[in-house]
Amino acid sequence: MEKLTFYAVSAPEKLDRIGSYLAERLSRDVVRHRTGYVLIAMEALDQLLMACHSQSIKPFVESFLHMVAKLLESGEPKLQVLGTNSFVKFANIEEDTPSYHRRYDFFVSRFSAMCHSYHSDPEIRTEIRIAGIRGIQGVVRKTVNDELRATIWEPQHMDKIVPSLLFNMQKIEEADSRIGPPPSPSAADKEENPAVLAENCFRELLGRASFGNMNNAVRPVFAQYSHHVIQEILGHLDACKKDSPRVRAGIIQVLLEAVAIAAKGSIGPTVLEVFNTLLKHLRFSVELEANDLQGGSTGNANLNTSSKDSDEKIVQNAIIQTIGFFGSNLPDYQRSEIMMFIMGKVPVFGTSTHTLDISQLGDLGTRRIQIMLLRSLLMVTSGYKAKTIVTALPGSFLDPLLSPSLMEDYELRQLVLEVMHNLMDRHDNRAKLRGIRIIPDVADLKIKREKICRQDTSFMKKNGQQLYRHIYLGCKEEDNVHKNYELLYTSLALITIELANEEVVIDLIRLAIALQDSAIINEDNLPMFHRCGIMALVAAYLNFVSQMIAVPAFCQHVSKVIEIRTMEAPYFLPEHIFRDKCMLPKSLEKHDKNLYFLTNKIAESLGGSGYSVERLSVPYVPQVTDEDRLSRRKSIVDTVSIQVDILPNSIPSDDVVSNTEEITFEALKKAIDTSGMEEQEKEKRRLVIEKFQKAPFEEIAAQCESKANLLHDRLAQILELTIRPPPSPSGTLTITSGHAQYQSVPVYEMKFPDLCVY
């Protein structure tokens, strides 16, 4: 060793080769677990490092640090401690000129990990933790004095160093029951006690921090324990739930300020606890408000009730702001969980999935809590960007969001649409679409869009009909206001931008034509303003989509209709109908067809550009769902006049002749019993819907055509038959039930090819 040291000092240019050779030997010995040779090689490296201080030492240091890293990466505690000791020796050497290209990221990460060692042997665990703390101390001493190399103060390093020191500063053993202050630690304790060593290292770190770097060093201290502060505030809020609204609003305001610090460093259970507690207090506040409204009386008591009602709204708004602020500051993976969590709390009629107790709220309170939760959800979803729409709108989230229960009120429908816009608008186009209007040139909006990915196409095949149905029914609500039509227009435009391929474009045009037809026919007896509002919505959307797909003939047809409307029926355009004091027509029946968008013209224009336009000839009918029967609203079944049965094997063969059964009271009773029939009808409707959703269009068209031809033949046969009743009845039927006997009725038979009618 003496000869090697003398040689290295005499010929410093050889240090690089010496270091490379020793590093090569040491790497081989570490892999082969030759611990003795490893110790010899590291001792040689240490002595050479301490003896040589020339400029040529720079390449040698790189070999040295490479070997220290090898030792720290090994799983042997003994080698990890050996590598740490060598690094500490190196850290105490003052170099003449700093090496600015040298970085210590690996050593910060490795020493921080050693500080959290959980080795099964307590002595070895303590030894490794002490080595990690000493390593961090060495990194700090090596880098902190050089102001030009301030990488150690960067947040990514401080977020590892400070928590590691704080972790070891905790009392590992149970606190001793002692009287008086603890004695000062001895020099031996400082080296052997991780808590004492970590405290000294932390003091040294803060002592070396400049004013500009202090924030990075102190911030992790508060972030690590901020969730304790949040829990204390939540506990205080629970304890004060019966206090005045002003007191509760003040506590929630403090929570809002504390959440600003805690949101970034929060973890799963803490986040859910915050939201669960806030939603519980939101329900409690709405319940108090509902009880006050129901129990209010006239006179002074009524004034007090009104004042308390406004105070409860302050509490509710504070809770919503806190939920929204906390949610919007969470990372995306946590935010999606919170979205599902809040959606699961929204009361949806006919289901028991929500976990928020609304038994004491009544209809008014339930509506209020729905609005509050949707407002909270709106704030949480603000700014959320998902790569695919399936991630943003999974089925478990979309189904309750589009529930008929959330269409009871115009404000609920507005919130639902705004939540959908937050999740659909992945390219920030919504601001450009604000305001329902006829856009002269859509290209001026500079719409941002990407090619539709496979996942988004699959989403629309699975959920497209659900979205169309929601928009269709939302347009036909009697309590719609101007904002509702704006949001519905934006929904159609966003679907076109974010999710529309050629097939979806055709479906959207079918939907628009169906809305136009519903406004003209007016089976729902809508007021004239709403009928004209639907016509204006259709005009605005078809103007937008025609320019987006850039089919000249389609654009020409839409522009011509809009031009005629401007001259003859301005109330069919959004710029006029949504203006105050717009003159409304008395009826729509006498209007010329040139004022309407015609399906045959659209099909002709799109077919000439290569679009598959067969489905345009099939009128859009919203799908029927089981939830319609659970909702308090009028079922969509009431508005659909025709149901087409395309199930296989549903058409009896011509050569099958029905057998005549003996008619008894039990048979009639069984026929009258409709409970089983309802289940069969429900299953039949489900199969029909599933068939329409999943079967290829060509198959559906072929079956419909076959069914139509067969029906035509049957009707022809029936019309050609001559009904010849026998000269006398073929028999009589006497129905007896209990003690009552009904009169006998004559029975005539009219036989057709495959059915018998009585």
From TrEMBL:
It comes from the Eukaryota. InterPro entries: ARM-type_fold, EFR3-like_ARM, EFR3_Homologs. One of its GO terms (cellular component) is plasma membrane. One of its GO terms (biological process) is protein localization to plasma membrane. Belongs to the EFR3 family. This is EFR3 homolog A. It comes from Bos mutus grunniens.
